[in-house]
Amino acid sequence: MCEQGYYEKVAQDAFRGSGLTSLPTLEADMIDNFVEIDTNAFRDTAITNIDLAYYTGLKYLKQGAFRDIRGVVTSLTFPPSLVDIHDYAFMGTNLSGIGTLDLSNTTIVYIGEDAFKDTGLTGLILPLSCPNRPNGPLEINDYATFSRMIGNTGDDISPFQDCTMLTSIHLGPATDLSLIHI
Hints:
Elements lengths: L1 E2 L2 E2 L1 E2 L25 E2 L11 E3 L8 E2 L13 E3 L6 E2 L14 E3 L7 E2 L11 E3 L17 H7 L18 E3 L12
């Protein structure tokens, strides 16, 4: 969406179902103003290199933003500004080419329901803290906080539900992980 000469987001369903094979590029002076990829914006496209680190102001990946991408995604990077990955963001997208997803350079505070369902990920690395979190930094050894961060609202729904290939989640130097069940 273009407003007043700069792009702030990719609109809902903007490229859904298209033959798009790469992400759009922006002029250098527009990158910091780009904050959101809206619902289903790139759903069912053929993008296999998802280099979001280029979009240095990106904060939000909305519901289904990269859901059901055709083909195997071989590259997936995020900018430090990323705070939210909403429900179903990558659901059904083959991320087996990534193996372990590294979010350690982000300020992620929320990963929604089924965000990585049926993706083929084998590992996940989370940031040690989230300095921009409204309630202070994330305490990794606090199950309730971790549970809220990944979208578990107490109804046994996990963003990693049915991720049968997931074999590890790296949480940093927490001392007691016995309460974390995914």
